[in-house]
Design goal:
InterPro entries: AAA+_ATPase, ABC1_TM_dom, ABC1_TM_sf, ABC_transporter-like_ATP-bd, ABC_transporter-like_CS, P-loop_NTPase, Type_1_exporter. It is found in: Cell membrane. This is ABC transporter ATP-binding protein. Keywords: ATP-binding, Membrane, Nucleotide-binding, Transmembrane, Transmembrane helix. The protein is α/β, with parallel strands linked by helices. Helix content is 62%, strand content 9%. It folds into two domains: 336 residues, ABC transporter transmembrane region fold (Up-down Bundle), CATH 1.20.1560; 246 residues, Rossmann fold (3-Layer(aba) Sandwich), CATH 3.40.50. The protein contains 23 helices and ten strands. Strands 6-7-8-3-9-10 form a six-stranded mixed β-sheet, sandwiched between helices. Strands 2-1-4-5 form a four-stranded antiparallel β-sheet, with helices on one face. α4 packs parallel to α8, α7 packs antiparallel against α13 and α10 packs across α12. The structure holds adenosine-5'-triphosphate. Adenosine-5'-triphosphate binds next to α14.
Amino acid sequence: MSRHYAGRVRSGRNEPLPEPSTLRERLTALRNVPPFLLSIWRTSRWLAIASVVLRLLRAVLPVATLYVGKLIIDEVTHLLRAGGVHEGVAAWFGNGMLHHLWMLLALEFTLAVSADLLGRVAAMCDALLTELYSNSTSVRLMEHAASLDLEDFEDADLQDRLDRARRQVAGRSMLLSQLLGQMQDSITIVSFAVGLLVYAPWLIVLLLVALVPSFAGEMHFNAQSYAVNFQWTPERRELDYLRMVGASAQTAKEVKSFGLNRFLIDRYAELSQSIYRANRRVAFRRAGWGGVFTTIGTIGYYAAYAMVAFRTVRGDFSIGDLTFLAASFRRLRNLLESLLTGFSQVAGQAMYLDDLFSFFRIQPEILSPANPRPFPASLREGIAFEDVGFRYPGAERWAVRHLTFTLRAGEVLALVGENGAGKTTLVKLLSRLYDPDEGRILLDGHPLAEYDLAQLRAHIGVIFQDYVRYYFTASDNIAVGRIEARDDDARIADAARRSIADAVIARLPKGYAQMLGKFFKEGIDLSGGEWQKIAIARAYMRDAQLLVLDEPTSALDARSEFEVFQRFKELSSGRSAVIISHRFSTVRMADRIIVMRHGQISEIGSHEQLLAADGHYAELFELQAAGYR
Ligand SMILES: Nc1ncnc2c1ncn2[C@@H]1O[C@H](COP(=O)(O)OP(=O)(O)OP(=O)(O)O)[C@@H](O)[C@H]1O
């Protein structure tokens, strides 16, 4: 086990249990139930109606069945008193005396069959509805996540919330059947209560009082489970991460060669054991107290039962009444118990809904204006940075500051500078993945924020240095640059030609239809440079007026790099481009070069001008050139 981590892992044993939220908080979580029901309703009206109606019908069946049972017993007692029936079974149908009993039996049979059928169909409706709801909520989650800012994704709290929301979408399946079950049980309870009120109203009160401790206990432990769950979300996300690192194609190479498996497995075991211990404590206490509280409820039931038995002996009730009352009380007790515990479970689950709904409430800040300015067909003035400064959320240091320069229309601009100088940050600001904290960025004289966000991004083709290797086909891997043109084979082939990915694809057994990566069956992995050529092709898929390539050639061999740039220069005539590179062979091909240092611009000029100025650029260039001599 790593000592690094030892301090961070909480010892489940010594950690005090999380404070459960107050009863009021738990009850206010119920406010999430109406919106939840509304989304169920929107998911499928017909299934929702069917489910409710079936349960309504099902709800009154138990009392009806018990009552018919009582009538049967009374009828049998009556027949016995009248001297009984002495013929064989065959005479049943012919004997007029038995007609009534026969009808009652048939009725109870029909009720029993209906109860079973209704229950099954209702359960089926619930299951279908739940799956539909889970699917549509997952889609909504994805859509909402897609609308959020990059900043939100870099926030660990949001990741935690998203994680809980995701898990809850699957877990929420319980809530619907629980709520509907609650409704059904309530109606059944009312129907029993009406029947029992006639006989012994105060016994119902006795039952209710006996169930209060059980209810309170459930509420308490549900809140505690939620609190444990809430507190351990980061660790559970870490578990997922460890599982992924320990067993994925991307990481296997490094994990094996560094011999990291033992470390990962130990870390996983240690973390999961801590989570287990926290859960176990709640489970133990829940089981212990639950047992005590249920016994109190049972005592209430038997007290009521004894009373009814006593009054039957006294002659107040018939035998039929006794069976009806005893069974009704038993059912009522079970129903009340499940209603009360169910209620506290619903309240508990409503707390999880909080995560889902609060995730949906997060709003992106980088938005399109209400009346966006039309995007120019071609850039005239270019893009001007005016004293732009930006600090990452939560960071104290400015990532970039006082950036003032103009990227002229049709110009190829290179950004150079040491690691962490702020080059990528500049590109993120340019494509409005972030908005500046200071200064402004003008596109043809107007702030970026005045243009439609989707249009802006459509006109700027950015390939980041940590571009994604999609486990899609080669063709789709290029098409992601403009996914609307996914079926436009000619366009895809053209983009591949420009980035010299065509030669890579020609060597693949299935050409453009080849699945890439080792994630799916028949996938083929590419070399780093080959992947990069594919990624560069994405930029050419767009009708971008501005191409931004962040270290586009870092993995390319010298010949490929030269070729990529030759084509780039030929084909990008009239378009602007920003190229970030640490390779001076690439940089020197740019029209102008911006040298960045500690988040600021230290020099601007052409390769020759900057060499002549003998400043930071000249120094960096010399360093690299010396390496080749
Ligand atoms: N998402 C982020 N959150 C917080 N700080 C960040 C984030 N991304 C970058 N930074 C910080 O901002 C500064 C500028 O980073 P940036 O990625 O722009 O550098 P760069 O010049 O592109 O570096 P490199 O040559 O290594 O790619 C760095 O100090 C970095 O640590």
